């Protein structure tokens, strides 16, 4: 049951039956608390895995016919994004930290992960200084109910120019797609990223740029 040899020795060395059972009760209560904490942690991890599994099933269906580096025009419904804002150097570590912070905060507030309806994403504001970026890092959600304390932004329904890119973030920033449009900001959806793998050359990102309203 995870009881240490030291605790067992202490248990058997009690001088009265009352002390023996009191000590045993305390040991079991400690074990109960420990196991409940482990279950809570495993439950949270399971929910995150189930969320990712659901997203990747949708991704397979939605991106089956898309070729990397090919521009497509898609009609996309409006989306509500919860995010954590970042200003600074464009590095992969900021994404992992930001997503974890959002998911941990949702868990603390008792919000269901099933309300998240997208893979990890970020709204990136284009900067002349290639080393500095403004990122709104987060997820799309089904409903804003319960997310009053989170930073939120609504993306309009409309037509979006979209392109898939396979490769790391440095190569992503150099794709010709960015030169095709006069840009102020883009939405980057990280289908395969550092959240799921450390192999950067298989990262798969979709860049979306708003064109017009439906």
Automatic annotation (TrEMBL):
Q: Name one Pfam family in it.
A: GyrI-like
Question: Locate the GyrI-like small molecule binding domain: which residues?
Answer: 73-174
Q: Which InterPro entries match?
A: GyrI-like, Reg_factor_effector_dom_sf
Q: What protein am I looking at?
A: GyrI-like small molecule binding domain-containing protein
What species was this sequence derived from?
Acetobacterium tundrae
